[in-house]
Write a structure and sequence with these properties.
126 residues, alpha+beta, five-stranded antiparallel beta sheet, 4 helices, DUF3037 domain-containing protein
Amino acid sequence: MSRMAYQYVVLRCVPRPDREEFLNVGVVLHCQAADFLDASWHVDADRLRALHAGIDVDQVCEALAFVDRVCRGDERAGEAARQPLGQRFGFLKAPRSTVLQPGPVHGGMSADPARQLEHLRERLVG
């Protein structure tokens, strides 16, 4: 198998932007050569509550489910989900002022983008 270039962003939950604290909760990976865009996430509610006791964990999970829907092209995600994969990734990696924020874009090479996504989620999120 040949290795293909990919890009990814780590999704961060920022419960209180004024404190600039965050917890990694997911990863979005795009590989143009494999026509691949997907997200993988895990929310540790106890760790989030340690950052901010009043955080709405369900809201964080809903935001992450929206990311999943954009990746899959699910019509419930609106206009973003109807775009080509590269534009969907662009939408997901754009800076936001919400509780769920993407980190910087990183890249790499992989023969299996789906396996690489799970590896990154395990390593960077837990």
